[in-house]
Design brief:
single chain; alpha+beta; Arc Repressor Mutant, subunit A; D-Maltodextrin-Binding Protein, domain 2; three-stranded antiparallel β-sheet; 39% helix
């Protein structure tokens, strides 16, 4: 038995709750993972996992052992990385998931710079607004806007997105131009709803002007769960939308969107890089996160990097 392989297999079973999913993330088969865990239990003379036909639960002894195994594996990776860091560039496959608009407008156009700096890092880029299960899908990190609702994840606050309120000229010609944010609640206007995959509910928008503070709920006839579709709906004149300024820049320049309530401020949307609590921050992940922060700083003033 290779004890390191056995520890990695055990840790991944705990994290995924399944021998099958653990095998998938380790790119091996279920039989191999099962054998490694059984050999580890025999070696330790302790039951680490309760197995049923439906699920796998960790025992009390297994939970305590898991915490030590995670630290040990992280220390091992640190030791190997520190020995090679001076002579070798970061390398390997890095799986990242990012929102579709941010990928298309900011991240992907800048990737030639990233690959010029780190040619030995292979990026596997998932592009979606859906909630990603980092453990089950073996994703190293996700880049997400809005407050995180998964408290178990570790996260780095990398940017704040400045927001604005916009509508298409065709919509304003049809419905009239609202003079105040309160006008959006009078029944004449329509908002395009965005359903965050983490909450499943349409957003409530807050605006401030001096000492004034108000919330707008409005009336939705369309709700989407994808950023690109949300923008397309606004350009098509289907309603008023709340949009990160970096997404509105090009449509506004083309005359496809008009900003509203420019004397009101909206709370910026925080953006985080999140990763599993048990996943060691490898050198390749660390340089990617640092590069993302640098990239966000180049998008100012529409995107701000927290100090």
């Amino acid at each position: 038995m290779d004890r390191i392989d056995a520890m990695q297999a055990f840790a991944r079973v705990v994290e995924t709750g399944s021998f099958t999913r653990a095998a998938d993330t380790l790119q091996t088969n279920k039989t191999r993972v099962t054998q490694l865990v059984q050999q580890l239990e025999t070696h330790l003379r302790v039951k680490l996992l309760h197995r049923t036909t439906r699920k796998v639960n960790v025992t009390a002894d297994g939970a305590a052992y898991y915490e030590r195994v995670v630290r040990l594996l992280a220390d091992l990776d640190d030791a190997e990385t520190s020995l090679s860091a001076a002579s070798a560039a970061p390398r390997g496959r890095l799986r990242v998931d990012v929102p579709a608009p941010l990928a298309a407008l900011v991240l992907v156009p800048a990737l030639p710079d990233f690959h010029a700096r780190y040619p030995d890092i292979q990026l596997d880029l998932g592009v979606s607004d859906r909630k990603v299960d980092l453990i089950d899908e073996n994703v190293d990190c996700v880049l997400r806007g809005g407050e995180l609702t998964e408290p178990s994840l570790r996260a780095r606050h990398v940017a704040d997105l400045l927001l604005g309120v916009y509508a298409a000229p065709a919509y304003l010609a049809r419905a009239g131009t609202p003079a105040m944010p309160q006008d959006l609640d009078d029944g004449r206007h329509v908002l395009i709803g965005y359903r965050g995959s983490r909450t499943g509910a349409p957003l409530v928008h807050s605006l401030r002007r001096g000492d004034e503070h108000l919330q707008v709920r409005g009336r939705n006839v369309l709700t989407v769960d994808d950023g690109n579709a949300y923008l397309a709906a606004g350009v098509a004149g289907l309603g008023v939308l709340w949009l990160p300024q970096y997404m509105a820049r090009a449509p506004q320049a083309r005359g496809e969107l008009v900003p509203l309530f420019e004397d009101w401020q909206l709370d910026p949307m925080p953006m985080y890089l999140a990763f599993p609590p048990s996943r060691h921050v490898s050198r390749k992940l660390r340089v990617f996160m640092d590069w993302v922060v640098e990239l966000m700083a180049r998008q100012a003033p529409e995107i701000q990097v927290p100090r």
